[in-house]
Each structure stands twice: as C-alpha cells, then as structure tokens.
Write a structure and sequence with these properties.
This protein is α+β, with helices and mostly antiparallel strands. 39% of the residues lie in helices and 29% in strands. The longest helix has 21 residues.
C-alpha cells in the first residue's frame, strides 16, 4: 500500500507542480515536497485560516464544508483539498500548468488519498 510520502512524491512529479504538502488542520506539516524557494512550513501555517473561512462561507450559503479550493495568485495556483477531518492537501502549481487533470484525479481519488493519512 502506498504511503503519504509516495503520494506527495507522485503529485510533486507532475508537470508544473512546485509543492505538494500534507498538513493537519492545525497547520502543522505532516509531509511535503517543495521547491527550495518555498517554505512549506510557513505556507502550511496559513492554510487553516483559509479553510475555516471557506467552511463558514459554505455553512452560511447552505453548501456545507470545503471540499476543494483553488486560489489563483499572480505567480500560480494553490489547490487546497480537504482529505479528512484531520488532514488537508495543498498543491502549489505554476501559472502555466494544466490543472484540469490534477483536479479530476484529486476529486476521483479523495477517499483513497484520505485513507493514507
């Protein structure tokens, strides 16, 4: 059976992916693989507040808790995926990358990925 490290490595190898980070809902790193320019711990620490705000929005809108969020930033995309009640996945992608297949695979394999955490 694959491990979290295998998952992170597989995602990181995708074309255009600069970081794959698995973190707890508290913002602490579980595992990561990132370019040298990215401080994975610092980035992970900021994700829980984004997820909390999205969860509150979902509740107010009657849509439920966050499943996936895509943040478009000038230097690329950040994809946040809720894996379980305890864990999140953050994937940082270059602006030129095709994220369609990545999003499809994350959605299709969410339960399998969550089982690794």
């Amino acid at each position: 059976m694959p491990t979290i490290r295998d998952l992170v490595a597989a995602i990181r190898q995708r074309d255009g992916v600069e970081a794959a980070i698995v973190l707890g809902r508290d913002g602490l790193l579980i595992d990561s693989e990132a370019t040298a320019q990215l401080d994975a711990e610092n980035v992970a620490a900021h994700v829980p507040s984004i997820v909390a705000a999205a969860d509150e929005f979902g509740a107010a809108a009657g849509r439920g808790a966050l499943t996936t969020a895509i943040l478009e930033l000038p230097q690329g995309l950040a994809v946040i995926s809720a894996l379980s009640a305890e864990a999140l996945l953050l994937v940082m992608v270059r602006p030129s990358a095709d994220v369609g297949q990545l999003l499809f695979e994350l959605r299709r394999n969410r339960a399998n990925i969550a089982a690794l955490v």
